[in-house]
Amino acid sequence: MSKKVKLTGGEIVSHSLKNYGVEYVAGVPGHGNWALIDAFLQKGGDIPFIQTMHEQSAVHMADGYFRASGKPMACTTSVGPGATNTIIGLATAYTDSTALFYINGAPATHMKGHGVMQEIERQNENSFSRVVEPVVKRSYKVGRVDEVPFIMHRAFNTMLSGRPGPVHVELPMDLQCESAEVQLHDLATRMPVGVTHPDPRAIEKAVELLLKAERPVIVAGGGAITANASAALTAVAERLGAAVCYTWNGKGAIDDTHELCIGAVGQTGTSSGNTITASADVVMSVGCRFTDWSASSYAKGVSFSIPPGKLIHIDLDPHEIGKNYPTEVGIVADARVTLEAILASVSDLQSSRVRARREPFLTDVKAAKAKWEAALSPRRDSRVSPFTSQRPLAVLREVLDRRGIVVVGSGNAQGAVKQGFPVYEPRTHITSGSFSPMGWALPAALGVKLACPDRPVVCILGDGDFMMCLPEIAVAAMHNIPVVFFVQNNSGYMSIRGGQRKFMGRHVGSEFNRQPGNSEPYSADFAGVAKNFGIEAWRVDSDDLLKPAIEAALRCGGPALVEVITARDAAGPFTPGWWDFPSPEYYEKEQAAYAEMRAKEQHM
Questions:
Q1: What distance in Å separates the CA atoms of residue 393 and residue 416, rounded to the nearest whole number?
Q2: Which residue intervals of 279-401 are DSSP H helices?
Q3: What is the mean pLDDT of residues 517-534?
Q4: DSSP states of 93-133 as a string?
Q5: Burial letters 164-177, b for 16+ CB under 10 A, else e
Q6: DSSP per-residue codes, 20-89
Q7: Rounded-to-integer distance, Cα 59 and Cα 99, Å
Q8: What is the pTM of this model?
Q9: What gap in Å lies between CA 167 and CA 464, rounded to an integer?
Q10: What superfamily would CATH give domain 381-565?
Q11: pLDDT value of residue 569
């Protein structure tokens, strides 16, 4: 047991974070947290502080760090606007089950309720914790310095146990500076030991269903990667002759080139992933929430058919079991140990028998994959300029090390990577699959690189996404964080324009054009902008320049930017699934088709 020491509130935080293995703190300094940040310079709590250009980006950086490493990072802001700027970042981490530690300042305890220091206090004194409450696992308000050690280990316990997620601690300005005799707690003695194991009866029932199935499909969600279950998942698929599809966050749970991998499922999934999964008589979900994106808005026969298909649902959170589909077997347990238990329950004889019986199914899998390849290859292999979304990705895949990590923004880039950029191991494809905010990928990529300094990291995003976080390339330059920013420039929010055209027959506000006239595309010279920030950059508008530019960017040893001029039309991902978006009644073209698909939805 450690002895008592006299520390300020800020020092208790910094010492605890260092003792708990936190290697970086990101944030923006302000008068509400400068005493806290100063504590990161004190001996015993000295942790590198990375200044970001926007508070939201500090949270995204910590988010990316955890996704790449499985270890938490901390972030901090001042009060008022600095604190409220974090909401999008926290909501992203919360919906994607990403652990991070966020601490902000607050008005001094003797000042609360007086409206000082950017305080929100008309309904309750210092109401920021109520603002943040829906997007964190728990919010803690410090009332005395001597309770900070307890709050620190409770916050880490909450953040890392069960379904991971962000936590929030609010530390008033005076308590950052005041000291107390305290005992810092050993985190190892405050955390649960081991993981949650499945009910043996549930395993028995699941194995029985899987052995009887004729067309079994495993759905890998982000929980499969968080649980480090990829090896077990692949082994179960091979033992059973089951096909494997994945969601946004599940990409990487199985090698994309594996013969049993059928690709992504959902609205922007693959035709092979949707066709085979929709025909499954047994679906085993591993850490998947069945969002509308991944389930094609629950329209029967598009991505899933449950029922008549039977669902084995493995998830750490009982809230997800049965939420969107009826469950034949619901298993609340760790994904890896559950899959290992299933694997151990299938004998070699059973495996050989079911594999032989599933030859017709596996023939269908092979044919569906070939059909998808035939659809994808013309866009991927096209040499036209401006580029399709897929062509630059094919060249990047050719050049990038197999263990390199891609961090992907939202929109067309996200869908194109999901569908056509093969990855070979977990945590090498990182994206926000649930909240999916623009402005996330670039700062998240910085966090990924901090977590994995020995691996190449490429941030793939569109120009609209890039402009929401562009100032953060200064952070890369100042700290020499060698991320390659791969910007697909098509002068607009093209994924939104495509949706507007489909559902409204026209578009507004989704192209970047010079006004008036609404015709001439507008774009900044992003390569030039990057150079002005002190970053090496290339602008690529022809196929012969593509590979040399990517190779040079990866080789340069520092942060770099490759701007790729991408076509506005016929350049984005395919949409083999469906998404429930109604059209205005005055746009008659889509009404009948929408009503037909809406009638197929199974979630109600």
A1: 8
A2: 335-344, 348-357, 359-380, 390-399
A3: 91
A4: HHHTT--EEEEEEE--TTTTTS--TT---SSSTTTHHHHHG
A5: bbbbbbbbbbbbbb
A6: TT---EEE---TTTHHHHHGGGSTTS---EEE-SSHHHHHHHHHHHHHHHS---EEEE-STHHHHTTHHH
A7: 11
A8: 0.96
A9: 30
A10: Thiamin diphosphate (ThDP)-binding fold, Pyr/PP domains (3.40.50.970)
A11: 86
| pLDDT reported for residue 114 | 80
Each residue's pLDDT tens digit, 430-464: 999 889 999 999 999 999 999 999 999 999 999 99
What's the DSSP call for residue 297?
G
pLDDT band at 223 (very low <50, low <70, confident <90, very high): very high
Among 448, 476, 208, 149, residue whose Cα is nearest residue 328: 208
**Average pLDDT estimate for 244-250:** 97
pLDDT tens digits for range 346-381:
999 999 999 999 999 999 999 999 999 999 999 999
Give the pair of three-digit tokens for residue 109: 């305890």
pLDDT for position 155: 98
Copy the structure tokens of residue 381.
Answer: 């292999």
Q: Which residues of 204-223 are buried (b: 16+ CB within 10 A; e: fewer)?
A: eebbebbbebebbbbbbbbb
Domain 5-189 grouped into CATH 3.40.50.970:
yes
Helices 9-19/148-160 angle, 10° precision? 40
The percentage of residues in the chain with a pLDDT greater than 90, rounded to a whole number, is 91
DSSP letter for each residue of 449-487: HHH-TTS-EEEEEEHHHHHTTGGGHHHHHHHT--EEEEE
Q: Say how far apart CA 318 and CA 570 lie, in whole Å.
A: 42
Q: Name the percent of the chain lying above pLDDT 70.
A: 99
550 vs 560: CA distance, rounded Å: 9
Q: How far apart are CA 344 and CA 207, in angstroms?
A: 10
* 87-134 tens-digit pLDDT: 999 999 999 999 999 999 999 889 887 878 777 777 777 788 899 999
Residues 127-152 pLDDT 10s: 888 999 999 999 999 999 999 999 99
The residue count for the chain: 604
Which tokens sit at 264? Answer: 């992504």
**What pLDDT is attached to residue 518?**
63
Same topology between domain 5-189 and domain 381-565: yes
Classify 75 in phi/psi space as left (phi over 0), alpha (psi -120 to 50) or beta: beta
Instruction: Supply the DSSP symbol for 489.
Output: E
Residues 573 and 415: beta-carbon distance below 8 Å: yes
The structure tokens 């609205």 sit at 267
Q: Answer for the pair 488, 389: CB distance below 8 angstroms, yes or no.
A: yes
Query: 407 and 430 in contact (C-beta within 8 Å)?
Result: yes
Domain locations in the chain as residue ranges = 5-189, 200-371, 381-565
What's the CA dihedral at 423, 426, 90, 103 to 10 degrees? -130
Superfamily assignment of 200-371 in CATH?
A: TPP-binding domain (3.40.50.1220)
